[in-house]
Amino acid sequence: MAKEITPREKDYSQWYNDLVIKAGLADYSAVRGCMVIKPYGFAIWERMRDALDQMFKDTGHSNAYFPLFIPKSFFSKEASHVDGFAKECAVVTHYRLKNGENGEIIVDPEAKLEEELIVRPTSETIIWNTYKDWIQSYRDLPLLINQWANVVRWEMRTRLFLRTTEFLWQEGHTAHATAEEAVEETRKMLDVYAHFAETWMGVPVIKGVKTTNERFAGAVDTYCIEALMQDGKALQAGTSHFLGQNFAKAFDVQFAGQDGQRDYVWATSWGVSTRLMGALVMAHSDDDGLILPPKLAPIQAIIVPIYKGEESIAILREAGEKIKKELEAVGIRVKFDADDKYRPGYKFADSELKGIPVRIALGMRDLENGTVEVARRDTKEKETLQTTDLAIKITHLLEQIQTNIYQKALDFRASMTHKADSWEEFEQLLDEKGGFIAAHWDGTGETEQLIKEKTKATIRCIPLNNAEEVGNCILTGKPSKQRVLFARAY
Amino acid sequence: MAKEITPREKDYSQWYNDLVIKAGLADYSAVRGCMVIKPYGFAIWERMRDALDQMFKDTGHSNAYFPLFIPKSFFSKEASHVDGFAKECAVVTHYRLKNGENGEIIVDPEAKLEEELIVRPTSETIIWNTYKDWIQSYRDLPLLINQWANVVRWEMRTRLFLRTTEFLWQEGHTAHATAEEAVEETRKMLDVYAHFAETWMGVPVIKGVKTTNERFAGAVDTYCIEALMQDGKALQAGTSHFLGQNFAKAFDVQFAGQDGQRDYVWATSWGVSTRLMGALVMAHSDDDGLILPPKLAPIQAIIVPIYKGEESIAILREAGEKIKKELEAVGIRVKFDADDKYRPGYKFADSELKGIPVRIALGMRDLENGTVEVARRDTKEKETLQTTDLAIKITHLLEQIQTNIYQKALDFRASMTHKADSWEEFEQLLDEKGGFIAAHWDGTGETEQLIKEKTKATIRCIPLNNAEEVGNCILTGKPSKQRVLFARAY
């Protein structure tokens, strides 16, 4: 394992790619824009998925599964939806291959579909077409369903985890009797996402609402959580949409209320994806490798024996296995790296690359003294600990690391959030510091677009519970009643 | 909820469809051959998936994720593989839609792919193309990877769960240094499948090896587990393939051995799918609904209060909640159906339809006597139980039900397995009894094919550890050294 990770200072973007590949999270595939999620990366994703899935179930949602393919005509039914997704769709047109004249494999022209099928970029249309059969009266509401699935959006410029043609995600699709209930659901799931990002991933997020320009295609309101990466760029980590009655009208989904009146159903949808893996890497890691929050780390502690001579091997193996069992008994995920082919230095570097939160080194001298050397990945601090109650000490250490990672990211964000009160200040902040910039904006899509063209900065969101404050748009000088959050973003 | 399930005697096939739909397991979708897995069905599948996933991890496998799309040219690389799958492939040819002249949505002819992409029907080719980069030396072996994914095979005749265009499955793909190791892996995973089918699903299976005709496209040997459904038809419930060096050669995956010699890698692949849901339904259920093994039932016990008058509602709700907590405390999955809008008779029928293993009815008289009425779904027996230690009693009852369901299916299979020693006997058994028929066969693909054409019966497998026995082929009279298992099959 040659590390050779480009330092962040030199090229942040290359550092990210190097790290994702060298740490064994993902790799490019033979299919343009698609990635392979490798076992170590998938183990982290599984932990994310399981934690989120439990939160969805705890808030009353059930999982289901809808078809991968969507008939082309379904897309046309919700006008802004098709506009949003038509340009990046994988289209299935045939259902058979055959041998060509020269023995090569060709698509059988006889096997052309009457109606083309779109590989789902998101499932609102196929799901609302199904809900039409499931919803008749208020008794069938609310309908609270989630799906874990793969989706495809034909991206021209892709990056591992952050933007790939195929990605894994979950998409919640709920149906309600009133607009109020649907909005409440939208906000509730935003809270679930924020809670997950902060307490599991250790990534502080700002909850807000998107401007019209940045809204999901087919939504009335798009709520989002926005995170800040170490290079000062923002990353949208999750969205929750209030869809109003748009899809219910497009697919004619009505229900009879308690009073017998018929009305269209109110909808939400919400999703997070494997993009979160990118956020996790970019928020915490350093030039030596990943820094994983203990709650998501597949291995929380690694025990490395420092062999000295043949006779030490059996002794240290026994001692290492004993510590492993003690830690496992309190629920810590432990690896005992007993291999005697690699040197400790190599193992140390590898455990840093993999972001294992705690490393426990155990030598013959330690054994005599009843101690171990414990190093934490986040701060790289080392300390010598008595092995008495080691499991409790490591448990506390893991909790400290989880808290510290979050606090560090929070402090970083605070240091990278500024106010700009003039165009010059805005441009200067963007170019010299990056991060979030709270600035006044005149509320028009035209100005937002113009700012984007001039600076590549977009309005990440209008934060929830935003303070009202009279001011003037940084670009047009027109009146504004609140600041919004700008940033350059992934 | 009108039940209206066609009785098995009248039309077994219709009974199955009715049951799958009425019990809320799955539904047809707007996309030809694709199904929607509904929340109740998905909850059962989730339990299957989690149990299997743990078994895979316990046997040293890691999960990963590979692309949905496979470049067309990859298929051509393993000759028998493309023959096996080319006729049923969904083919992506374009990556964009646009507005047509009349405002309709059309496929953009400008956005044609240079090389068409196949929606994976199985992932050997894309995975072995990836393994080429992952495997250099014996140190990289064995490589033990599993993927949970959706796959697409363009089936002409589809049935919910049993045969659908898109289905969910897992596919294990392992790489080994020797043929022996790979065969051992193939057999180990077959054992895992058999163990899961028998101890979790309560479905007894016969482990065996497929004939050449029935072998997976690209395999050297295909092992399988075969189950028997209540109508006497067999169902292939899982397969495990020894792939030899076929895919390693097709994708040039070589490794350097400890001696420095290079050789092609040995491979296995193995999979089970949502088809298991069909097997589960057809193996146990009756005309009143599902019969679910307790280990897989999303709800293991339902408590139904028998309200009598307004004043009983609060009292029985409190008592019901108390029982619920007691049962949950020992890990039983319980639903307390406290609703006072539906009558008990309706709730009873619904819990039978859903296959909830244990029903606990609680009335005012019971409360006075410190008893409840407990009904088991599998035998429909009822008994009055003292509520003392109820959680322990229900735990035991659930274990009994799990065992009984399996034993019943095992007895049924024994009663439906016969020997045939002549063609007349063979045809008569097939038409009058169905089930498995152990008969001599001359070992040729031609005879196997002829038998299939004449009777629709196929060789399900040559059972493992099959007894040697000299005999004559039932069709050709040619010599045979063992009986093989025939059946009509799903």
**Main sheet makeup of chain A:** 12 strands, mixed
User: If you consult CATH, what is the topology of the largest domain in chain A?
Assistant: BirA Bifunctional Protein, domain 2
Number of strands of chain A: 26
What's the CATH superfamily of the largest domain in chain A, by name?
Answer: Bira Bifunctional Protein, Domain 2
CATH class of the largest domain in chain A: Alpha Beta
Question: Average pLDDT across residues of chain A?
Answer: 96
Please tell me the CATH architecture of the largest domain in chain A by its name: 2-Layer Sandwich
What level of helicity do the residues of chain A show?
25-40%
- Looking at the structure, what is the overall shape of chain A? globular
Q: How many helices of chain A?
A: 14
Quaternary status = homodimer
Instruction: Count the domains of chain A.
Output: 3
Low-confidence stretches of chain A: none
Beta-strand content bin of chain A? 25-35%
Rg from alpha-carbon coordinates of chain A: 26 Å
Biggest interface, CB < 8 A:
A-B, 61 and 61 residues
Can you describe what's shown?
Two copies of one chain form a homodimer. The first copy, chain A, is α+β, with helices and mostly antiparallel strands and 490 residues long. Chain A has three domains: 24-69 and 122-284, BirA Bifunctional Protein, domain 2; 301-412, Anticodon-binding domain (Rossmann fold); 417-487, 2-Layer Sandwich (Translation Initiation Factor IF3). Chain A contains 14 helices and 26 strands. The first copy, chain A, has helices spanning 12-22, 39-58, 72-75, 79-85, 124-134, 179-199, 246-250, 275-284, 310-329, 344-353, 364-369, 390-415, 423-432, 445-455, and strands at 26-28, 35-37, 62-63, 69-71, 91-94, 97-99, 105-107, 112-119, 143-152, 166-176, 206-209, 221-228, 234-244, 254-256, 262-264, 266-273, 301-306, 334-336, 358-363, 371-376, 382-386, 417-419, 436-440, 458-463, 468-472, 479-487. In chain A, strands 3, 9, 10, 11, 12, 13, 16, 22, 23, 24, 25 and 26 form a twelve-stranded mixed sheet that branches. A five-stranded mixed sheet of chain A has the order 18-17-19-20-21, with helices on both faces. In chain A, helix 2 packs across helix 6 (179-199) and helix 9 (310-329) packs across helix 12. The mean pLDDT of chain A is 96. Strand 5 of chain A pairs antiparallel with strand 5 of chain B, so a sheet runs across the interface.
